[in-house]
Fold this protein.
Amino acid sequence: MADKTATPTAPQPSIFGHNPLSTLQAEMDRMFHAFSMPQMSWSPGSSNGDGTLGLRVDIGDTDSEIHITADLPGVEEKDTVVTLEDNVLRIHAERKAESEQSDKKWRIMERSQGVFERAIRVPGGIDPKDVKATFEKGVLKVTLPKPTKEQPSSHRISISTGPH
């Protein structure tokens, strides 16, 4: 059975030269692959289009809170910033390149480094001082109380180490 996670390859020319149906099939395969394959937030090609890399999150809620969880493997707490401004929760993290001195000749380098960012619109009226964030083992968890009244402001949220 074929590996469904394989990236589609370029079309092969027919023995008669260019094959437009082969080109169309390859392009359709590439498009379906791009929309159907889940990727880690820093997989090749998962850019936000502005030089930052996308950050995937899980969002859920209870009667009184909104919960946001983001996996940030290889990112340290000190390189992560969470802010709430104008009803937008922004997660900004940076995974720095490892400075390994070696005479290795790399054959494949898929592990990325760079800036990861995600902006999530949240309901108005959340007091930024009531937002909690924890970071443990590469997982960021942010808890926001559901709003009681509108309070426009900007506030940096401190991140604590340890269980949520």
Q: What stands out?
A: The mean pLDDT is 75.
